[in-house]
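Predict the assembly for these two chains.
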Amino acid sequence: MKKVLTSLEEAAKFVKDGDLVTTGGATFHRAPMELVRELVRQGKKNLNLVDREPALDFDLLIGAGCVAKIRAGMLAFEVFGLAPNFRKKSEAGEIITKEGACQPIIAGFRAAAMGLPSLPVKGMLGSDLLEISEVIGGYKQVEDPFTGEKMIAVRAIEPDVAVIHVQKADEYGNIRIEGPVYEDVIKAKAAKVVVVTAEELIPTSEFRKMPEATTLPHFIVDAVVESQKGAYPCSCFNYYDADYDHIKDYLKAAAEDQFKEYLNNYVYGRKTDE
Amino acid sequence: MNDTVDVPGLMIYAMASEIKNFDTVLHGVSSPLPVLAMSVARNTHAPDMGYISGAEGVDPVVDRIYPSSFDTRQNRNAVAYFGLHEAFDLAQRGELDVMFLGAAQIDRYGNTNLSVIGDIDRPKIQLPGGAASAFLMPITPKVVIWITRHSNRVFVDKVDFVTGQGYNNRSEEYKKNEVVVVSNLGVMNFKNPDRAMQIQSYHPGHTVDEIKEKTGFDVRVVPDVAETPVPGPEVIDFINNIDPDGVRWTEFR
């Protein structure tokens, strides 16, 4: 079945208000920024975001008022410091922040990907994070039935939608990620719906020549849309590096109360086909 | 003291010396000092270490560092990719030997806070989050905490929130694992029966008294406390070559 869409606008419609959403990539690398900007343009509300180490993608959605709840291992702007909108809205009580830790979040995705209700992880015991996460029903202390070892069982995290930017895809939804994959395969298998934006659409015959280079086969993916520079200003391996100057401008705009102007210039002011 | 040795250079050298040859070592996000320390170690005393980049490259030739520690240019000439979830599997097997972690607050037993200042439900300051801290702190044989601003606001009597587990929040099994703290003033460890923080060395230009004064609890001192070893000019040149833009200074500003 052909899953290719002609516009980001259509692709973004797979995300509904209130959905649990995760994004591909890690910090400033291969985040699906163009699709995220389209979510902002469509005025999505009350999104529930989850990821291991997001950065600009989540902070932009938070700053644009699209987010109700967030669960992340860490949300920061690498050496540039704290994520400005996340910090502001979390401190003002405008979003609910439930800090996770990288491993339990990955384990939650893995459980969902494997069709399991939960997955145990080591570590974690003794951290105050357990108390806050128990509030949202994320973790429970369990004993291994064979050894009696005390561990934390993490409830499966099954996103309504995973949005992933990749280097190459075909019109059926076969995808090829080049370079680091992060948890994108796990997230795609875990999510109910997988929306892919791709730098390039290539013929299926290219996939058939080298199936070992295929990251995910078509039946995992629900929609594909071409999006050149779809990760910008984040990096896309083999295509472009992160634009740290743009990221600094974003921080400056947020710090100087110019975030609306930033949105007007880089999000609302741009149509998807420009 | 060699005039060309600056604070990041001292810290990087001290962090590198915590890595032994054949260790498997991982760095995380926002980690210019750990990246440089791992590179120094591999190019000096630990040529056979397993180097796992947070950017997923294994044994990359890091010829330059960038504002993001996940920048894929730090994966150049890697022999493989190894995802974070795979590195975490390794950690659960006890086969990840060394991890570098940060802290906004730390107490005498090595509990770290990277979550919030103030109340968790309505934080005065929302910190970035502990990333892998709560998972890796107890189970990793050696965790090196680096802190660039040693003061009694960071070294506190009681952390506002326990993100990473200190020795009083661990099971017996995990009390045997080591934590080393490398700050801009000195190196601290917990190698005593109480597993309480003690000063192992002070950096050139600083003193034990200064560290005690800038620590918000009664920090102990090892009997043979000494000056922190200073890297030679070849190590400093090596660091300058990889980091010509001074990314390593961002945490000190």
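The longest strand of chain B covers residues 220-227. Chain B has one domain: 7-252.
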